[in-house]
Amino acid sequence: MGTRNKHYLWLTALALVGLLWLLTCGKNEQKAVTVSVGGQEVNQVIQQRGLTAQDVYAAVKTYIPTGKHDEYIMFASGGHSGQVLVIGVPSMRLLKVIGVFTPEPWQGWGFSKETREVLAGGNPPGKTLTWGDVHHPGLSETGGDYDGQFLFVNDKANSRVAVIDLRDFETKQIVKNPISLSDHGGTFVTPNTEYVIEGGQYAMPLNGQYASLDQYKEKYRGMITFWKFDRKKGRLVPGQSFALELPPYWQDLSDAGKQVSEGWVFLNSFNTEMATGGVESGNPPFEAGASQRDMDYLHVINLRKAEQLFKAGKTKKINGFNVLPLDVLIKEGVLYFVPEPKSPHGIDVTPDGNYLVVSGKLDPHVTIYNFTKIKQAIEKGQFKEHDPYGVPIIDFDTAMEAQVEVGLGPLHTQFDPNGYAYTSLFLESAVARWTLGGQWTSKHGKEPWTLVDKVSVHYNIGHLAVAEGDNVHPDGKYLVALNKWSIDRFANVGPLLPQNFQLVDIASKDQPMKLLYDMPIGIGEPHYAQIIKADKIKAWEVYPEIGWDPSTQSKHPKAVQAGGEKIVRRGKTVEVFMTAVRSHYTPEHVEVKKGDRVIWHITNIERARDATHGFALPYYNFNLSIEPGETQTIEFVADRAGVYPFYCTEFCSALHLEMAGYFLVKP
Amino acid sequence: MVTEKELILGPRVPRELLQKERQRFLMPTLFLGGAGLLLLISIFLPYWSLTLYAPQYPKGLQMKVYVNRVTGDVNEIDELNHYIGMRSLKEAAPLERSLSIIIVGAIGLLALAAVYIHSPVAAFFAFPGFLYPLIFLGDLYFWMWNFGTHLDPRAPLSHAVKPFVPPLLGEGYVGQFKTVASWDVGLWLAFLSSVLIIIGLYWHRKVYKPLLEQELLAKAKETSSKSA
Predict the structure, then answer these.
(1) What is the pLDDT of residues B196-221, one digit of tens each?
(2) Which residue in A122, A217, B89, B144 has the most C-beta neighbors within 10 A?
(3) Which helix (H) or strand (E) holds A416?
C-alpha cells in the first residue's frame, strides 16, 4: 500500500473521530479518544500528547496537507507595523506581509525610487512619515460582495488611505487626508467601490491651524471623507473626492448601506458631550467626560445627495480639499442623527441592508435599527429635536427595531448565511451568536432577536471576521476572533506579548460554535480583518512582461532586455541599466567618481515563478526585491569613495553567492 | 512524336473510362493529395516535445519544437542550460528554421503535384515527402548532439555534467532532471503522410500503369505503321 493511501486512511480515521465527537458532543468533552480504523499510530500520538476529542477535531478541521491550499484568504491589518498580513484560513498560516505605510526591507518597500514615491504620496507637507497605525482593511466590492481586485487600508495615526492591487499584492497609492490627522471609520467601501469611506476620529480644526481648546465647540470639527475610486486606473482620485464637515463629536466606525440602504452611509460617534479632558487641571479625564450622556449619535448620511451637492459645487475648499459645510448638510437633508446607547462601538449593516447593528460597548445590548423606519421618519420630516448644531434627530423608538442582550462589552458584528449575527464581547472575552429577525427568521427557524450561543475566546476580543461576513452574500463557516490579549496562550516571550487570532468553527447552524486554533500575531495590533474566498483572487504568478513597473502597472521606461545592458554617463550623472538573472548581474562592474549622481535600474529578466532576485548595496543603504519581470530603480549620490560589493539577497540558485559585483567609487 | 512534357505528365485518362471507373482513379489523388495536405497542416503543429522534471518545477518544464520555432519554457530551459555551458536553444538550427516553411511547403506541394502526374516520375515528386519525417528526426538528432557535446568549458558546472545527447524518444537523465521526449502531433502527421504516399503510389501504379502501357503500345503501332 502506498504512503498516500495510508495518509488517506488516517485522515478518514481522524474524520471519524470528529464525527464521533459530534455525536457525543456536550456529554463528556474530556473523554479519551480512540480511533478504530487503521489508527494505531494515530492513537499513540493522541495518547502521548493527551489530546481530547475536541483537540483532534480541531486538528483535522484546520490541517492543510503540503501542496494543498486554504479555502479562504484573510487580510488583517498589521496595526503599528504599518503593514497588512495575509493569512490562510482555516490553516491560519501567515502567507505574506504587505508593506504599506512602513519601509519593509524584504520587499524593498521604501528603498527603490518607485516605492519611495508611493510612500511619499502619503507624507504631509514637510514631513516624512515612517510608520502607520493600520486599522481597517476593506476589500473592493462588486454588487456588495468582495471581488478580489483591490484592498484599501487606513492609517489612524495620520489619516491616510492606501490602495493595494491584488494582482501583485503591492501597495499602489497612499493618500493623506488634507483636513484630518486621525481617522477611524475607514476603510469601508460602497457596494460597487465607487467610494472608499474614511471617517475621522478625534475632532480638530479641519484647516490644521491652532485653536485653543476653549474654542472646541466653535473651531473643532469632525469629518467623514468619501474617496472616489477609479477602478480602471486602480487609484483614488482626490479631485473627485470630498468630505463632510461634522460636529466635533468623535466619530468612530462607519459602514456603507447596501441593497435597500444603498446610497446611504452610517457612522457612529462618542463624546457628544464634547468633553475636552484636562485631568491635570482637575477636569474629568476623557474616559469619564466622554461617557456622561446616556446617548450618543448614530450619523445617517445620504451619500447620493451629498454627491449631488458636491457635483453642484456646494463644497468649499479646506487645505485644497472639497468639503461640504455642516450648514449645507443640514439644509439640504444630507445628515441626520439617531440616538444610540452611550459610547457605542461598531456599526454593521445586515446583508440585506435593512438593519443596522450598533454595539453598546458600555451596555450589554446590541441595538438594531430598521433602515426602512429611519427612511420613513426622514421622509415625514418628524424630528422632535435637533443637536446644538441644528442636525435633526430621529426619535430612538421610531428607528429602533430590537435590542438583544448579548453580553458585556459588545463591539463588532458580522453575519452568516443562516440568519445569525456574531458579536464580539470585549469585557466578557467571548463571541455571541444571535438571531436576526424579519426575513431572516425563516433561515434559522428560531426566535428572532435572541442570543443562542456563546464561545469563550482568549482574551479581550476586538473585531471579529466571518468569511465574507459583511457581504450581501456571507459565506459563514469560519470566524476569526481578533483578540488583543493572549496572556497565557503561548510560551512567554517577555512582557510584550503577541496578540491572538482565534479561529472558530461556525459551520453548523445547529451545533455550538467551536474554538479551533490559536495564531499568535507578534507584529502589531491587528484591528480588523476581512476573509475572502481564495478563488476570487486572481493574482499574477510573475509580472506580465519583462521590464514591468509595479508602481504604474505598466512597462517601465528604463527597463532593458538581455543584451541591452549599458552604463551611460551624462556630466556628473551616471545611469546604469542592469539585468539580473540566475546567477549574475550584467554589468558586474560599475565604476563612478565620488560625487556622481547614480541612477541605477535593475530588470529581473526571469520568467520562472519564484525566481526573485534581491539587490543589496552596502553603506548606501539599499535592498531591493526584484521579482520576475520587475524593474526597480535606486537613486543616490556616491558621496564616499571606496569599493562596495553588491550582491543578491534572495537565495536564487546554487550559485547565489556568486551573484555579486563591485560598485567602485573613485576618489 | 511524344514531347518531354507529355512524357513526364503521362497519359490523361479518357473521359469515358474516368466516368466508368471514377472511384479507382480517385484513389491515388486522395492518398497523395491527403499526404501533401497533412504536410502543409503539420507546419502549424509541434513536432517534438521535451519535458523536464525536477523537484523545484512541480509542473515540469516543457518545450515544443515546431519546424520553424521552439515554444514553451524556452527561457527557463536556456537559463538552466547556461549553467552547464549549453548554448541558447534560440541558436539551434538557424538555417533549417529560416527555410523550413518554404521547404516543408515545397515538399507538400510536390506531393500534391504528383496527383497530376500520371507517369513513374510521380514517385520522384512524392519521395521527399516520404523521407521527410526521417530527415526531420535526423536533423533534430544532429542538433541535440551538436549542443550536448559542445558545452562551454568555462561554464559554472562544466565539470559536473559530461557531454550528453538526450534521447529522441523516451526518458533520459541530466543532473537532477529527468527528461521525457515525445513525438508530437506534427511529426505523427508527417509519418502518416509517408504512409499515405506509399499507398498513393501503389494506387498510382495500379491505375496509371495500364494506361501508360496502352499509350506506349499505341504510339509504337503508329510509328510502325508510318514507317511501313
Answers:
(1) 999 999 999 998 888 888 888 888 88
(2) A122
(3) none
